[in-house]
Specification:
single chain; alpha+beta; Ribonuclease iii, N-terminal Endonuclease Domain, Chain A; 58% helix; 10% strand; elongated
Length: 248
């Protein structure tokens, strides 16, 4: 069987125009060694596939999360189409093994290289779009995007409140959260700290803890809760904040 036949068997895709699929599988290193090969490399299809992925994944998160603000939607889309995610999608269908690649590139590990796998996946998407349109691409992508979305959401839940707050504040208001101790009480062996976090000079939350670090995490959690309640952000980790968090 040919490389195109093997890939179709592995993925369930059936191309009407096999030359499109062959082009999607042709790395430029192959043409460097076989310049007489009649099919162009996959770089133009990669460009097209990148645009198709941005559109379809953007549509996916737009409908899935109707309450998310533009900035959060942009971040979520970026997480779902980043290089590592697309390279992982390519690995799931063993895309690297189907590529037409020069011997030198193969010997240097090109079939496992994330950048190459990402580009090949984008090229495959571009070829499928030209061959069968958006709906077929959407059907092909869904088994990849659903599990990746769950992974991204779980990763977000696992992130501590201070990190979440800093990411949001730097992206949205271009400021770094500032923490200050507003109260210390209790004996040295059981001291309790109260910290306040400000964004752009405005107090957003207070937290209490038996260390300054714990109090800062609680203050960040309180700030996240306040921002979420105001519709400024949508962070599922907000509910995991420290129990002693209190609003500013």
């Amino acid at each position: 069987m040919s490389q195109t036949d093997n890939l179709e068997s592995a993925t369930g895709l059936v191309f009407k125009d096999k030359s499109l699929l062959l082009r999607a599988l042709t790395h430029r290193s192959f043409l460097n060694e076989y310049p007489e090969f009649p099919i162009a490399d996959n770089e133009r299809l990669e460009f097209l596939g990148d645009a198709v992925l941005d559109f379809l994944v953007g549509e996916f998160v737009y409908h899935r999360f109707p309450e998310l603000r533009e900035g959060d939607l942009t971040n979520l889309r970026a997480a779902l189409v980043r290089r590592e995610a697309l390279a992982d999608f390519a690995l799931r269908i063993d895309l690297g093994s189907f590529l037409r690649m020069g011997h030198g590139e193969t010997e240097s590990g090109g079939r496992e290289r994330p950048a190459t796998l990402c580009a090949a996946f984008e090229a495959l998407v571009g070829a499928l779009y030209l061959d069968q349109g958006l709906e077929q691409v959407k059907a092909f992508l869904l088994p990849f995007t659903e599990p990746e979305l769950e992974r991204v959401q779980q990763q977000a839940l696992d992130k501590d409140p201070k990190s979440r707050l800093q990411e949001w504040s730097q992206a949205e208001i271009h400021a770094t959260p500032h923490y200050r101790t507003v109260r210390e009480r209790g004996p040295d062996h059981a001291k309790e700290f109260t910290l306040e976090v400000t964004l752009g000079g405005v107090p957003y939350g207070r937290g209490v803890g038996h260390s300054k670090q714990a109090a800062a995490q609680a203050a960040a959690a309180a700030a996240i809760e306040r921002l979420a309640a105001a519709g400024e952000l949508d962070l599922p980790a907000a509910r995991q904040a420290g129990a002693k968090a209190s609003p500013a």
